[in-house]
Write a structure and sequence with these properties.
Elements: E1 13-16, E2 31-34, H1 37-46, E3 49-53, E4 57-62, H2 68-74
C-alpha cells in the first residue's frame, strides 16, 4: 500500500528476499514483483513510501528508484 489512509488500496507482491529472512527493525534494499504490474508500477513509481500489509500494517519502507531494465525484468 502507498497510504495508511482509508479507503485502503493495495497490490499483491512478492518480496525478493534472496533466501534471507527479513527481521523486524532490519533495513535492507530489496525488490518486488507485483502480481499486477500494469496497475501497481505507475502508482509506486510516483510514491515515496510504501506500507506492508498482512491483515494489518506490519512494516514500511522507502521507494528507491531502480534502473528501467531491472523493473522490466522483474515484471
Amino acid at each position: 500500500m502507498t497510504s495508511k489512509e482509508l479507503p485502503y488500496s493495495g497490490w499483491d507482491a512478492l518480496l525478493l528476499l534472496r533466501d534471507q529472512p527479513l527481521h523486524p527493525g532490519e533495513r535492507r534494499r530489496l525488490g518486488f514483483v507485483f502480481l499486477t504490474p500494469e496497475s501497481a508500477a505507475p502508482i509506486f513509481s510516483q510514491a515515496e513510501r510504501f506500507f506492508l500489509w498482512d491483515g494489518r500494517f506490519i512494516g514500511e519502507g522507502l521507494i528507491m528508484p531502480g534502473e528501467p531494465s531491472q523493473i522490466e525484468s522483474l515484471g
